[in-house]
Amino acid sequence: MKINNITLIGMPGAGKSTLGVVLAKILGYEFLDSDLLIQKEEKRRLYQIIDEEGEEGFKAIENRVNASIETEDTVIATGGSVVYCSEAMEHLKSIGKVVYLRLSLESLEKRLGNLKKRGVLLKEGQTLKSLYEERVPLYEKYADIVVDEEGKDLEASLQALLETLQKEINK
């Protein structure tokens, strides 16, 4: 069995874009960052879209853009909030494998800088902890594969991801 696309999901700072680029090179795949696709289609930065359209407006755009991705042999790095978009997630699952890059809240706190500038979808007064607790069940729900990144650097995370994908291919 050939895995066509690989979609990476997970919290902001989990390494979806960073790992995705390297994974695409190793597999000889294309790389697509769906946040960049949203910015390109909307001609605005993520945080501007969130500021101007609000949370629901942003989700509608994110859902539309991710649900319209038609590609093959591509590693897709998604925005952390894509799991709120059921139509987009069903589409991404239908065109390949969905991989959840799992990382503890403590590790994420160390990695993350300014959440607003990163275009992270936070409700008024929401903390990273409450966001994490809200999203983790959704990541687990949609994941075909879970890769635990805890205590791993980029190289070790990549190795774990490749080994897991290899097992999936050999099933």
Automatic annotation (TrEMBL):
Sites where the protein binds substrate: D35, G80, R135
Ribosomal protein among keywords: no
Sites where the protein binds ATP: G13, A14, G15, K16, S17, T18, R118
GO MF terms held by the record: shikimate kinase activity
CDD domains: SK
UniProt: Mg(2+) binding residues: S17
Signal peptide per UniProt: none
Cofactor dependency: Mg(2+)
This enzyme's EC code(s): 2.7.1.71
Cellular localization per UniProt: Cytoplasm
Enzyme class: transferase
Pathway named in the protein's UniProt entry: Metabolic intermediate biosynthesis; chorismate biosynthesis; chorismate from D-erythrose 4-phosphate and phosphoenolpyruvate: step 5/7
Entry keywords, A to Z: Amino-acid biosynthesis, Aromatic amino acid biosynthesis, ATP-binding, Cytoplasm, Kinase, Magnesium, Metal-binding, Nucleotide-binding, Transferase
Catalytic activity: shikimate + ATP = 3-phosphoshikimate + ADP + H(+)
Cofactor binding comment, as recorded: Binds 1 Mg(2+) ion per subunit.
InterPro entries reported for this sequence: P-loop_NTPase, Shikimate/glucono_kinase, Shikimate_kinase/TSH1
Alphabetized HAMAP family for the sequence: Shikimate_kinase
Function according to Swiss-Prot or TrEMBL: Catalyzes the specific phosphorylation of the 3-hydroxyl group of shikimic acid using ATP as a cosubstrate.
PANTHER family per the UniProt record, alphabetical: SHIKIMATE KINASE, SHIKIMATE KINASE 1, CHLOROPLASTIC
Subunit structure: Monomer.
Protein's recorded name: Shikimate kinase
Natural source organism: Blautia acetigignens
